[in-house]
Structures are given as structure tokens and as C-alpha cells.
Amino acid sequence: MTGVTLSGDQFILFVLLLKMGIMAALAGALITSSFFKRLIFLDTRNTRQNWQFALVFGLLLTAGSAVRVLVGYEGMDLSLSGAFLVGLLGGMVPGSAVGFFVGLPGLLHGEWATLPFLVLCGLGGGIIRARTRDRDEFWSVSPFFLNNIVRSWRVLIAERRIDARAAIMLTLLALEAARTLAGDRAPAELFVFHPDHFWVTLCVWLTTLVCVGIPLKIWNNTRVEALLEEQRSAAAQARFDALRSQINPHFLFNVLNAATSLIWSEPEKARWILVKLSSILRRLLRGGEDFVPLSREIEFVEDYLSLEVARFGPEKLKVEKELDPRALDVPVPSMLLQPLVENAVRHGISPKVGGGVVRIEAFRDGGTLRVVVRDNGSGFKESGREGIGLRNVRERLRVAYGQRASIEISSEREQGTSVTILMPVERGQGGA
């Protein structure tokens, strides 16, 4: 095997590439941890969270610094960019604490200036964080420093101020320049590369910018995804609430009219109707739960149907149920069945001479819940007709379950209508 000999500058450039790769791998590995994500995206942290944040970074960066001191493997030393990054994301206390611990291996090795220098790096990042009003500015730092220069220049021209991106770049370059000057004068007291050419020194400085920009870019992508998911959830919740508020209130007026007509002839029955109605209205006004057990949904429908039976009479309207006990604990969207039952009464049983039956069925088949609302009423006058109630139910199923739920409607003239809902037992992720 032929050996390859690198010059001093070539070796430094190789180490710089290695450092960038190690920083990218470290940032990618950390962001997969839910514990780390909770810490990294907090705008404010308590004392315990600050020390947890410092501990995570401190252990990793100190290990890399120790490898450099003990083994001479410079590519593992991310002390400057790491301490600065902790200060930028965590504040001055975590940043200076990490700088202190990362500087200990160098101090024990005789590099007495390493520890105070790294504490200064952590403080520098923390100061920028404290003075940045818009935290999105340092989250948007790119590993491509030319992009940062262009964005910062636009802010400077438009707003006459130095933004966080420019402050980060200038501070890091100043720290690297200070380390280079101090290391050249006292090489035994502070670790620094000693290139043969100045352009390699510039590469060393720019690598520090990249090693700060890479993790910020990786973590910001995850942060943006989380924000988008929150917005999608909020939009779905708003849509869900809007659909729930569209429940047809016509039965309220019908029930009040029925109670009014019975006040003088059958006051006890009128009183019973109003008590039942108050229970229904309490549930409608409360409206804070998006999902309820099927058993509670059935109870609400029973209250509603008892009012309709009182209005039409037991000879006109009969109610039947067939419920699988295993299905009663399954969560379903609140107020999902009421529009279907109301349609069955208003459009199926009410127009039919002699009355009819409304039947509610619920069965659980493995991971699927099947709910059926059927009547033997007059059926649809037009094939495929779908009113507000059915559209509401269909849309709420889509918002809650996406493509995992379905609704099937079958109707025949003078034979009745059957509405079948299939939905997953486990809610999981909706489609909105």
C-alpha cells in the first residue's frame, strides 16, 4: 500500500473538513432525542433546564477536547464553536459553564489560557442572545456565510442596525483572530493551528462560522417543522370547532313549540320536556370536548330522541338500539350522531304516514368501529341528495381521521335510509 504524506497546510484543511463533518453528525444525532428537542427550543429556561442544557453539551464538547489533548486528534476539538453555540442558544450562564468545563482538559495539559478564553466564547454567545430581540435571526444563520452577509446587509440598509447574523459572524471572527494572535505569541498556552499560509488561516476562521451554522441550520429545520405541525393542528382544531358549531338547531324550536302546546293540557309532560331540553343545551353550550366515548354520544342521542318521541308520540316514532359493549368506550367526535339521527326523524319518519323506527347500531371489529343510523322512513326524494347535516359529519370525519374514516349512505324511496360510518378505534393523526 502506497503511503500518502500531507503537508502542514493540507493536514489542517483535512482536519477542518473532519470538524465540519463531526459537527453535522453530532447535531443530527442530538435532534433525534425528544429530551434534547424540548430543551433546545425553549425561549426561557429555569435553573434546572439551564444546567441540563449545559450538561448535554458540556459532556460531549469536553470529551472532544480531552481527545485532542490526550490523543492529539484535533478534529474532535469543537470547543470554540461549541461554547459559543451553547451561549447563543442557552444564555450566558450555560455558555460560560460549558466553556469552563471544556477548557479543563487544556488547562490540565498546561494550556492555562484555554479555560478563560472558552468562558469568554460562551459569554459572547450569551450576550448576543440577550441583545437579540428577534430570535428568528440567529435561528436563520446559514452555514454558507455569504448568505448571512447578504441578509445582514439588507437589514443594515433597510433598518440601519446590525442584526444577529452579522453580530455572530463578527464575534466569531474576532474570537478566532484573538486566538490566532495569542497562540502565535504563546503557542504552549493556547491551542491554535499554525498554517504556513494566511489563506489557510482564513479557512480556519471560516470553518468556525460553518461549525456554528451547520447545527443551527439542522435544528432550525426541525423547529420549522414543529411550528408548521402546530399551525396545522391549530387550523384543524379551528375547522373542527367551526363544524361542530354548525349543528342544526331546528329541533330546539320544534321542542319548544311542543312544550308550549303541552303547558296547559299536560303540564307535567311539558316540564319533563324542558328538563330534558336543558340537559341537551347544557351539553351544547359546554362544548369543550372534541372526542367523547361512544357511550356518552349514545346517551346524548337518547335524550334527543326522547324529546322527539314526546313531540311525535310513541306510536309515531319508535327507537331501537343494538350496541356492542366493546364499542362503547371508543372515542368518537362529539356531536357526530345527532345530525344523522335528526335527519332520520325529520326527513325519514316525520313525512311518513303511520310513523316508523329509528335504529342505532354500533359494532367493533378489531381496530375499526362501525356505527349505523337507519330508519324505515320515506327515503331520499332525489338519489344522492346530501344536506348540511351529512356534509358536516363527512367533513368532521375527514378532519379527525383523514382517509382512515368513511361514511356510506344508502336510501330507497319509501324503504328508508341507512348511514354507515367506519372509523378507526385509535385516533392517531388526522388528515388535516
Describe the model.
By secondary structure, this protein is α+β, with helices and mostly antiparallel strands. The longest helix is centred in the middle third of the chain and has 47 residues, at 198-244. The chain folds into 2 domains: 8-234, no CATH class; 245-424, Heat Shock Protein 90 (2-Layer Sandwich). It is built from 15 helices and 7 strands.
How would the blueprint of this fold be written?
Layout lengths: L7 H23 L3 H7 L6 H25 L7 H12 L1 H17 L5 H18 L4 H4 L5 H15 L4 H22 L12 H47 L5 H13 L4 H20 L4 E3 H19 L4 E7 L7 E3 L4 H12 L6 E10 L2 E8 L12 H14 L4 E7 L3 E9 L8
Parallel strand pairs: 2-4
Antiparallel strand pairs: 1-3, 4-5, 5-7, 6-7
Mean pLDDT: 84
Helix run count:
15
The fraction of residues assigned to DSSP E strands is 5-15%
Helix percent reads: 55-70%
Count of distinct strands = 7
Q: So what's the oligomer here?
A: single chain
Give me the Rg, rounded. Answer: 34 Å
